[in-house]
Specification:
Blueprint (H helix, E strand, L loop, with lengths): L1 E4 L8 E4 L10 E10 L1 H8 L15 E8 L11 E3 L10 H4 L23 E4 L2 H4 L1 E2 L6 H21 L7 E5 L3 H12 L3 E6 L2 H9 L4 E4 L5 H8 L4 E6 L4 H9 L1 E9 L14 H7 L2 E4 L8 H10 L8 E6 L3 H7 L8 E6 L3
Parallel strand pairs: 8-9, 8-11, 9-10, 11-12, 12-13, 14-15
Antiparallel strand pairs: 1-2, 3-4, 3-6, 3-15, 4-5, 5-7
Helix pairs in contact: 4-5
Amino acid sequence: MRAARLWAWRAPLEIGAAPDPAPPPGGVVLRVLACGICRSDWHAWTGSDPDVRLPHTPGHEFCGEVVAVGPGVTRWRVGDRAIAPFILSCGACPACAAGQQTTCAGQVLPGFTVDGAFAEYVAVDHADANLAALPEGLDPALAAAMGCRVTTAWQALTGRAALAPGEWLAVWGAGGVGLSALMLARAMGARVVVVDVVAARLDHARAQGAEAVVNAAEGDPVAAVREITGGGAHVALEALGVVETTANALRSLRKLGRMVQVGMPAGSHATMALPWDAVYSGQLAVYGTRGMPAHRFPSLFSLVAARGVDLSPLIARRVALSEATAELARFDGPAPPGVAVITNFAA
């Protein structure tokens, strides 16, 4: 198969032949229909993710068609189209039995702990516990984006911070996960203010329903959010994983507010000095979140269908496998609006 392989940190991905994966016991092999290019892939590319070992094939938000089925699989057949969360759980441990698959001690992460989906084929462990059927007519490029950014935002808003209709949500960072949070929160009946430093991304957020936007490069973003929301947001979602936005997210909350950390703190941001006085005096709740359990796909699909949520504005660029390195390099600076998805694995 063709795959994009990483042989050195920050080096151009090498496009070439790689062995076809075999279905593991209890798993399947998917022919990859689409795979998103995410900031988490950039962390892997730069060497900031300690789970990644070279050589390596990145790619963790994907969907595909089943082409091979391993022994023990009962729910999937060749030809089925499916999506997987980026955290593949074992499906059998106490955490999985409790519905907390993202904390599974035996989890497998394609694109991080094993080879991922910047390739024509990818193996999926524990298929019965992890795969969800693609809804009829869903664009594979959108499905791929749902494998990480949309699902992560859904879990953050509903599984962790419990966003309620009528509440104010402050989104810090208007990238893929921030834009996903905006779209889902609006469908849930929340009011949303989006903060970023890139004017084009803020214009894109406003076009997708943000009630207000704040350019953090043009003044005090915390004061602006507090004024817009009448004293502070009920929920703040941090989507970059850096000190400045994390601290600002905490300071932008009203008393008894909830902050959910979605951005991955890596490299120099793995340890942060934060305003714990704001947490104490505001009696704030701080939640970490990482991925989404596979059993929550139906609730997400149901919301999207029932509320007519148009996720297509998430997709800015449909690219070839050979363009993956250039897309990863975009994350070295403020990235343009929308996300890139690999849809052509032959070029």
